[in-house]
Amino acid sequence: MNGNNLKGEIPDLSALELLETLDFSHNNLSGSIPSSLATLKNLKALHMNQNNLIAEIPDLSALELLETLDFSHNSLSGSIPNTFAPLKNLKVLYMNGNNLIGEIPDLSTLELLETLDFSHNSLSGSIPNTFAPLKNLKVLYMNENNLIGEIPDLSTLELLETLDFSHNSLSGPIPNTFASLKNLKVLYMNGNNINGEIPDLNALELLETLDFSHNNLSGSIPSSLSAVKNLKVLYMNENNLKGEIPDLSALELLETLDLSDNHLSGPIPSSLATFKNLKALYLQNNNLSGTIPTALLQRRQTSSFTFEFSGNPSLCDSISSDCSHPPTPVQRPRGSKSKLSTGITVGISVAGILLLGVAIGFVTYFIYKKKKSSVHNGAIHEGLSQVELAGSECSGTVIMGEPIPAELHVRRFSYKEVEVATNNFTTILGQGGFGPVYKGWLDDGRVVAIKVSSNISLQGSKEFLNEIDLLSRVHHKCLVRLLGYCNEEKQVLVYEFMSEGSLFEHLHGPHSNDNSVLPWVTRLRIILDAAHGLSYLHEGCSPQIIHRDIKSSNILLNDQMEAKISDFGISRNQPINGTGAPPTAVMGTLGYVDPAYIKSLNMTERIDVYSFGVLLFEIVSGRRPIFESLSSKQSISIIDWAKSSFLRDNIDDIIDPSLHGQYNVESVRKVVHVAVSCVEMPSFKRPRMSQVYQDLKEALEVETSELQGSY
């Protein structure tokens, strides 16, 4: 009965005494889980995931034959029952994505358990020592909870392949006993308060993904990591690591290396340029010195490699700089080790977010964790009054909490000039998160888009000017450029004019008739531009800019059909229901918003990645994010619909019929595959936008290589 859009409560099924498998997953069922399920004593598999079920989990201890139990992605509350202990045949247990509280119960009797997922809840207390008997355990997810204390000894779990304790409040050191987990392939410990030095992990020869980022680790990066030869992804960013980068040349399979935001010193090893599979290298905001290896700079010019090194004042770019005069060091803050508490998280965006604490006038470097904070009661770290803007086109220093700069980097307009430019606000182009948008003409003849603040979005003059100063330094060919502002009767933003309107208009509006259907190759170039711009906001600017309202109407097109992202980087307090709200409210547009974000208010760049995945499905199919079924007249999510066809390999069912077969199916398949990865649950499985950009470039290359041939 799964995936049928069923509604209502689950009926009494106690008469089905011989039932072995019950699957009500991926519906819209509501109400509580009936206690009568406990009478189905032959049940081996019970799937209730992806519904709207509420209340506490009933006593199911009588289901002694049960092997698979999945209650994930509902709204279940209360604690995890102790009555799971008799389920000694249980192999798979999913409780993730609910509202469960309390401590983790004793599960030591479940000796056949292979997969255990309690992630994305509000569990508290410490991780129990009672996992030791679970010697068949292969997958263990405890991420995104409120767990505290030290990590217990898990050395008996020798079959463990995936271990995720990320985004909790765990403390203490990384246990040396991890070295016993020789089958481990994926290890996530990021987003905690773990301290001490990194232990020797050279015995983990099968390890492919290692994430120790956003902790308080100290000491140096151990050279023994070079023995972990299957490593593909290594995140050590946002710690207190020091010393030189060791020789990691033996890691021939490495694809992503992030050592940013530490205290690393010394030169960049030239061996990093020899990694044939390396796609992304992040070294920004350290104390590295010397000349950047020429091979890395040359490789950076290619489409398949991302290399970030800004925020290292003593580094020298030998290609474009005079290496005899290194730049003067710039004071900068280290990144926060955790998400800010919901009470002080401040979203800054026009339909999106610039991480700016408007209440205290200070740009927050990262917003990372909803339930804990390294900033208490609105205080900021002393001595951190400057935030360096990383990236070649996002450079300079913005003073926050200090007097407003006398000269901003864009033109200041009087309100009278705005009235003249808009002919008294005659031609309205649309409505954005900041307010209405008007067409205007400057005195030099340029056509511009002029955004006038609504009462909902209005903010303090000082904060507004600070944001203008920041935005004026953010330049990228795939971002709509700010040209000027006004701060008199109303707050006004003046942007470059995008003559071809929005992507939404071309897919669904006045430009979407058969005579002007966007060709597939044009759609590819548009989403590639959008991915490029979003990748820059996430990874090329400091503080990082999270948009929070990526959608087709915020992708604007110029007369060359080149795409640019709009509505980023200015505060607004308008949630998805369109009413005024505190900054902890969910921002975005229905259909595009990450469900995990709605539930948790955990703001990371992954919420933009999710929205971008929806955008990809939209541009492939020509359908809106939520559309009406012609047969049932019910609303359907484009994600559920497209993923269902993709899993059956029915790509032709997804593609926009108005394209009339004028596309390379492998190119489309690549884009859909990227879209599926962008909307993955849990969110940590989603790629970075820099990776999305590279994957979409490959899709475009597949398409353009056959443009001269026939489809």
TrEMBL record:
It is found in: Membrane. GO terms for molecular function: ATP binding; protein kinase activity. Pfam families: LRR_1, LRR_4, Pkinase. It is a single-pass membrane protein. The chain crosses the membrane at residues 344-368. One of its GO terms (cellular component) is membrane. It comes from the Eukaryota. Keywords: ATP-binding, Glycoprotein, Leucine-rich repeat, Membrane, Nucleotide-binding, Receptor, Repeat, Signal, Transferase, Transmembrane, Transmembrane helix. Residues 423-700 form the Protein kinase domain. This is Protein kinase domain-containing protein. It comes from Ceratopteris richardii.
